[in-house]
Amino acid sequence: MSTRKSIFSDGELYHVYNRGVDKRIIFADEYDIKRFFKSMVEFNTVDPIGSLYENSFLELGGETAKSRNKLVNIVAYCLNPNHFHFILEQLVDGGISEFMKRIGGYTWYFNNKYERNGSLFQGVFKDVHIDSNEYLLHLSAYVNLNSHVHQLGGETAKLIESRSSWEEYTNEKVRGICEKEIVLGQFRSRDEYKKFALSSLESIKQRKEELKDIRDFLLE
Q1: How does 164-201 read in b/e, with b if 16+ C-beta sit within 10 Å?
Q2: I want to staple 78 with a disulfide (CB 3.0 to 4.6 A). Which of 23, 164, 178, 217 is the partner?
Q3: Domain boundary assignment for the chain
């Protein structure tokens, strides 16, 4: 059985990602992606958790997801039909591992809904330490615009629309769930970030076929 080798440090940023086993679809309709997204919000807490159904009653008692102590800061994310990407900042010891363990409960939901058995994701989630600001900025573009990087189309695109934090970064009216200032604070405006991200995307697409590891390009 695969085990996690990485040791995550509080206050550090990480690129965390995984895909469906055998590259299979992990979000088959819009409800699936909304359910996974809700898990990202509701289960990001240091406190003990119940099910999403149980958590739906917390607000009646005066507690909301926004008022809890979080395991991680979600800096950016993208949910594609067969894989996902996060940029996460660990806030407490073991925060990233616990967060990923909790949202991994999505497998039970998916298997129950579609009457299947076995693993849904391709082993233990993957992670890369974000060890430079340049890497962070280009990676934010890569994650926010990930569906464009992969140029999703055909039957995959018909199943579901990808969901990402791109609108949070470019539209001030979208409040969202991300801690964006670490990236946006380095630009004079959202429009300036948008221009940077779109320019970075074109470079990534040009090099995508040349380099198997996108990190090699991002660190150049």
Answers
A1: bbbebbbeeeeeebbbbebbbeebeeeeebbebbeebb
A2: 164
A3: 13-218
Angle between helices 95-103 and 30-42 (to 10 degrees): 150
In whole angstroms, give the CA distance from residue 35 to residue 43. Answer: 12
Residue 2, pLDDT score: 46
- Report the alpha-carbon distance of residue 121 to residue 77 in Å, rounded: 17
pTM: 0.84
**Sheet of 13-19: strands edge to edge?**
126-129, 13-19, 83-90, 72-79, 163-164
The answer to whether 136 and 130 are in contact (CB under 8 A) is yes
- What are the E-state strand segments in the chain? 13-19, 72-79, 83-90, 126-129, 163-164
The string of pLDDT tens digits covering residues 6-25 is 789 999 999 999 999 988 99
Query: Which CATH superfamily includes the segment(s) 13-218?
Result: Transposase IS200-like (3.30.70.1290)
Which among 10-24, 59-73, 159-173 has the top mean pLDDT? 10-24
pLDDT in tens, 101-126: 999 999 999 999 999 999 999 989 99
Residue positions counted in the chain: 220
